[in-house]
User: Fold these one by one.
Assistant:
Number 1:
Amino acid sequence: MPYVFVSTQIRLESGPTNVGDEYSDPGLMIYLGARKTTMLGNNFSEYHVDEPPRLVLDKLEKIGFRVLTMTGVGQTLVWCLHKETE
């Protein structure tokens, strides 16, 4: 999967950080040390790490991902990253 979304709440810049959904690459989620959770009332799962977004972005850069764009949506910060396929 060449695209990844990373997000966090504005007041939680120190973590936790959302790093994927239930369809994310399991190998990448293991590399990031993410845990899969389902919030009460949701019918979908998300992957989270306790680290701040900066550390997650650093880890993703080390394996070839690059930030395409970043934005704020309400109280959420979102980064979109891409990795060139071989």
Number 2:
Amino acid sequence: MEETGVILQSEAASVELYKTELMVESDGPRLYSCCNCRNNVSLHDDIISKAFQGRHGRAFLFAHAMNIVLGPKENRQLMTGLHTVADVHCCECREVLGWKYVKAYEETQKYKEGKYILEKLKIVKENW
């Protein structure tokens, strides 16, 4: 009987270790994905600001984006002045998610160059 108890305790420890490993695996980085196809497009850690306005409401400024395709560059008059931008499309479904700042013409806006705007309505949270 004692032997059986030891085996059961050992099995219980293995099951608990397995559960812990599964939790660690699913606790990957917090991501944002395309609202249409769930393709990962950015890391939560790459958010610079949540205080931006997009075409369809609130938007986030990201340092980096992934799994995207850029549209052609164009000059756009935005709330903060003239910028050269390129629309950001999901590389899987081609949904327009926001834009990339290519060039800012006003000195106070230069910090945006090379950064990405992703609209809150166009992205969903993953691994939260």
Number 3:
Amino acid sequence: MLKYSTLSNMSSTKPPNENETPKERKPGLRSVQTTMLFRAVNPELFIKPNKPVMAFGLIAISLCVAYLGYLHATAENKKDLYEAIDSEGSKYMRRKTSKWD
């Protein structure tokens, strides 16, 4: 009988203390206790998002991708051209032709 009474006392939950104030919960890892090394290696977890910087980065990445697409499109047009020199020594652009044609 003694064992049962001690087990029932251990399993019961304590009533909330009226003197304790509930702490505000912060989203993410800002409220978690971490080391300075962890914060230095993972700053994106602790810094609030900066919308103007995000917009600038999105525009910059988009322009870089558009420029690469432009280079790819113009390279296909220049692929069949080469600079040739005629018998008089002047240079001109000529389309590549196959010996089989």
Number 4:
Amino acid sequence: MAFAKCFYSLLPLLVIFLAIQPTLSNAQNPEEVINKICRSMEEFGFCNQTFHQNLRSPAATVADLAQITIEQASSNATNTHAFILNLLGETTEPALKNALTECENAYKIVGDSFQRALVSFNNKDYDGMRDAERDTPRAEASCTTTFNTPPNPVNPLDDRNRQMRILIAMAVVTASELTS
């Protein structure tokens, strides 16, 4: 009987603890969170380096990491889009021009999506941020696959696509960490 009284008196505390557990992820050691995110990437080193080169504080939160991923993905998409426009102006090969046009459209979508994600992030609308990032993997993949479709022109965006793919994955995983 004493056990039952003790159990029922502690039950509300247990419920409260379990209810606030997800918010404790923001208080985790930043290095542990970075490692957790980067271990799920295709290239741990690129992910880890991106976070560490852009950390503003050794006590970074998951929100700080999300901001890094959005800013880096947005910057990469903008730079790659400009690079594609330059290549489009220089090429006369029809197969390459078609592939680059597909990629130009894809990177416009990716860039616009991350701009919306940044606005949502700045408004602390993390669900909106996550939703804005949702279409980016498919858009980037359309650029990658267009170079695998015959006729297969040489892909001048191979490394840029790889980096963008990793940055998108980092952003999506970090957004999930932030909204869980």
